[in-house]
Amino acid sequence: SCTRCLEACPTGALSAYRLESSRCISYWTIEQRGDIPPAIRAGMGEWVFGCDICQEVCPWNSDPVGELAAEFRTPVERQGLSLSDILAGEESDLRSALRGTPLLRPKVDGLKRNVAVAMGNRRNPGYIAPLAEALESGSPMVRAHCAWALGEIGTAEAKEVLQRALEGEADPDRRIELETAL
Known about the structure:
The protein is an all-alpha fold. It contains twelve helices and two strands, in the order H-E-E-H-H-H-H-H-H-H-H-H-H-H. It has a two-stranded antiparallel ribbon with strand order 1-2. Strand 1 and strand 2 form a beta hairpin.
């Protein structure tokens, strides 16, 4: 009779105790290899890899016994890794830092795409510079999500970055992303 997970799911992926993967944040942040549709991005919130909201609200999980097993703790060398670090990181450096973890499952570009969405959902103007840099040098998929994020931040500075990028963008699909973000 409990419906906590159904009520807590931010994208409505759970209904009648069934999972609709096409709405699930875990699916979009881990399994999806291409663009995330704009209609899904806002519902992803700040999740960069997976989503545990249904697990966090489940009463069966409310009183875990014991400590977190050592193999599940974040290693010291990754504890300070920020969203900006990931977005600006070189592929080889990120692969090295994340080797042996599930964080490479969406591939480096997928992780950067997810970071851009999280930045856009935070709407923090402090992310304009790393988003602008990735907008110039990232893969087409990463650039599209950076454009969306800058549009969500929406300041005059963010719009100026988008306008400059639009003037130099040749890819017609990415131009549409830029125009939409503006």
